[in-house]
Design goal:
Elements lengths: L25 H16 L4 E3 L9 E4 L12 E11 L3 E6 L9 E6 L1 E7 L5 E7 H14 L10 H23 L1
Antiparallel strand pairs: 1-2, 2-3, 3-6, 4-5, 6-7
Bound molecules: nickel (II) ion.
Length: about 180
């Protein structure tokens, strides 16, 4: 396993649509495990393949806390939202591709998702609350969508400006 570098905005790859996975093989499983290692190291609770520069429909997640973390990570291949409940939930989201920026996003609180697991088996599962937010955030990445796209234009612009300012300051500090 290896930690891969995470792509951040404004890299154009984050706006591309990922392609379906056709074969679940050792190479894909190795990528998924690299993604999990990268996610835990970041630290984060979800990661899409595009965030490590690979345009394939693969996401990994682990929303467990404390001792439960790392015990049952999820690898979702070609995930698709089949249905969602009417109730919405608001969550302060962040993203490893827009580090240190956070904003409240409203999404369905319950979603049913179909996917292929790491053994190549077709699965269906309901995700609620934080996991519902998470799986929708990660599936958005596969469509080239970021959480800031769910905000008003003003809020999105403010976050992007703040992020760019932070990057410039970091670059300056590295020179000194
Ligand atoms: Ni993200």
């Amino acid at each position: 396993m290896a930690i891969r570098s995470i792509v951040t905005i404004p890299d154009a790859i984050l706006r591309e649509k990922s392609k379906p996975v056709e074969t679940v093989d050792d190479e894909l499983r190795a990528l998924a495990h690299d993604m999990l290692e990268t996610m835990y190291a970041a630290p984060g609770i979800g990661l899409a393949a595009v965030q490590v520069g690979v345009l394939r429909r693969l996401i990994v997640m682990d929303a467990q806390k404390g001792d439960e973390k790392g015990k049952n990570p999820l690898i979702l291949i070609n995930p698709e939202i089949l249905a969602h409940g009417d109730a919405l939930r608001v969550h302060e989201e962040g993203c490893l591709s827009i580090p240190q920026m956070y904003a409240e996003v409203e999404r369905p609180a319950l979603v049913r998702v179909s996917y292929i697991d790491a053994d190549g088996k077709q699965q269906e599962r309901d995700f609620a609350d934080l996991e519902a937010t998470l799986v929708q955030h990660e599936i958005d990445h596969l469509e080239g969508r970021l959480f800031i796209d769910h905000l008003s234009r003003l809020k999105r612009t403010l976050i992007i400006r703040k992020f760019q300012k932070m990057q410039r300051e970091r670059a300056k500090a590295e020179v000194l």
